[in-house]
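WARN retry 2 of 3 for item q-0093 after timeout on previous attempt; input resubmitted unchanged.
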Amino acid sequence: MLTRAECLTLKLDDLTLGERIDQRVFNVIYSRSLVYNTCWEDPAVDRRALRLGPDDTVLVITSAGCNALDYALCGPARVHAVDANPRQTALLELKLSARRHLGYEDFFQLFGHGRHPRFEALYRDALRSGLSPFARGFWDSRNHWFSHREDKGSFYYLGLSGLVARGMRGYLRLRPVLARAVHDLCETASMEHQRHIYDSRIRPLLWTPHLNWLLGRQLTLSLLGVPHPQRKEVLAEHTHGVGG
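OK item q-0093 returned
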């Protein structure tokens, strides 16, 4: 039987030099930072597909914990959340502790707006004791992540995906017509109107060759938590790039 190290060696031997570099870039980035500050998938789709009930046990990648908590609302027997990055589990633990010890307004300030003027006190008095030693150590040094003033951003502009979000926010400031279209897309409640805004006003302006090239780089996708094999699959299916 091959050891884990031998299996990894075999996998690396199948890669080109460029692919090995891409994989190492991802490993270095992913193993040192919180990547996801929110989940991107729509759990409503999973609900329809899985039809979870009281006899079901679910295994889910932790990510930002949003989907794991959504599955729990369906009342399965157990939800197991695992992740190669323990910082993601630390975020889920913080959400669980906040769910147990905070009221709705305080909880929504934290994870709806991504900031709370009294976070340090809430963390010290209500949240910290409910965390594991690793999560406690992680959040002890990151109290400021939820303490930003409104003009300084929020938790959702932190972590690696937050870094990409900050870059996108800066890009939109340089392109006010596109920024207005994105704002209108977020404000409308009609799916049909959203589709019209995206197709007519956003798609033609957003997916420029330069932006498409940038999003196709492994460094950019590593910041979004996308490993090299997944990037390779996406590019194989979309000949015009990630945005295609």
